[in-house]
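Hi everyone,

Forwarding the result from last night's run.
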Amino acid sequence: MARTRTRIDRPGMDYVSHLGPYRVAAGDLTVAGMPGSVFAPVPRAGFSTTDVPVVAFAHGWLQPVRRYADTLRYFASWGIVAVAPATETGPFPSHLGFAADLNTSLQLAVHTRLGNGEVTVDPERLGLAGHSLGGGVAVLAAGVNDKVKAVATVNTGDTKPSAVTSAGLLTIPGLHLVGGKDSITPADTNGERIARAWAGPVQLRTLKKAAHLSVAEGSHWTNSLIGDAGDKGVQHLARMLMTAFFLQHLSGQEQLAEDLDGKIAGTELEDLTEE
């Protein structure tokens, strides 16, 4: 079968491997009643910002939201409002509390007119994502929010209650990225367990060069604590894959399905049919 020719408003992975067609405005969730960040696409000719999707992103353990700013900006450049609550940042976070904050941030985006009222969010096009602890929290949040349509995680950490149990109840699409060099949450633990438990369509993909903090941008004292640092190549891969996943499942860009199921340099698609 011949492949559908892609273009910027119907992108393939060749397009999604770059920033999207929208300029991006950054803001503060504090004005809406919650500490955190929001990134929104700026209206431009030929690209609507009415009833766009929104993705709420959960930070990793001890990680400030600023370490995901370029990832959130990437989502917004492709027409997806991105919000990230800056709550539960201490050493003993409440996992259920963080999940509740994640869902609250989605609702704040839905009920707030962004960009001087020119950007509105569709309440039926909600996604969740997260890194490390935030990956597990995103799964927990999806388990109690039936409006969420897709979930993506990176190097998922343990949560209490277990995100694996929540995954078994989720029939929505899931994308789980695990690090080939992650010594904190190895690929065969949380991410794989969640993917194998997932009740809906799911993909597990290894980022071959990713350590635990590779997707966290810039420097932070936890790099010395954990023993690894950010990696721009890994960050780019994770952004590209998550963006394509959300474009497919929140924006109806089904032409991306074949690319997402295929070979992507620097990654390995794991076979979940094997025991």
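The radius of gyration is 17 Å.

Cheers,
N.
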